[in-house]
Amino acid sequence: MQFEFLIEYERTNYADRLLTMAVIFLIPYVGIALCELWARLTTKPQALQLSFILLLSLMATALVYGAYPRHDNYARSAGFNVSQADVDAIYAIENYAKDTPYIVLANQATSSAALEAFGFAHYYHDDIFYYPIPTGGELYNLYLEMTDNEPTAEVMNEAMDLAGVKLGFFAINNYWWDSERIIEHAKNQSIDWFALGDGAVTVFVFER
């Protein structure tokens, strides 16, 4: 089954979830095996029992640690949820635009906040949603071009031309990789900008 409406690196997510579900179903059997092993260890020397308990404790600690999102010099987890700053940003954008048709280049969290708040409010040319959903669409690819390369007015103009509008917004979250560089460069390219949530989300305004 192909998921062409998703961006390429997300197309294996459904298969990954099946693997996770399979592991969950195996948990009772793992528990039974551990109980059987412990029953056998009760007749063994105490040092062996303590080693088993220590090993289980280390494994449990590692699993809990691995479940937390990372945001350091080595890795930045992408498992961020919709925040209040995302919600504030989509309302601020809506108020800024007033009745002017517009598009927004933003990540999935901000786009999800807009979908929750406004529903499928605006479509252009029948199939272009005004936020970059789904991630396999052209708007999301342009968002990645703004974040992975340079956030330029030319890229935003391409996005606005795609939708046939004259007003565009670019929203960047402070947890995004290299967000400080992106923000500073976008300030020189946009006509206006504003920040929400003490800089959690910065929004840049572009016009044709």
Give a structural overview.
The protein has 208 residues and is α+β, with helices and mostly antiparallel strands. It folds into two domains: 8-67; 84-207, no CATH class. The protein is 52% helix and 12% strand. It contains seven helices and six strands, in the order H-H-H-E-H-E-E-H-H-E-H-E-E. The chain has helices at 13-41, 46-67, 84-97, 108-118, 138-148, 153-163, 179-189, and strands at 103-105, 123-124, 128-129, 167-173, 192-196, 201-207. A four-stranded mixed beta sheet has the order 1-4-6-5. A hairpin with a 4-residue loop joins strand 5 (192-196) and strand 6 (201-207). The mean pLDDT is 89.
Mean model confidence by pLDDT: 89
Structural class: alpha+beta
Q: Segments where pLDDT lies below 50 for 5+ residues?
A: none
DSSP helix fraction: 40-55%
Largest sheet: 4 strands, mixed
Strand content: 5-15%
Q: How many helical stretches?
A: 7
What's the quick description here?
The chain has helices at 13-41, 46-67, 84-97, 108-118, 138-148, 153-163, 179-189, and strands spanning 103-105, 123-124, 128-129, 167-173, 192-196, 201-207. The chain is an alpha+beta fold and 208 residues long. The chain has two domains: 8-67; 84-207, no CATH class.
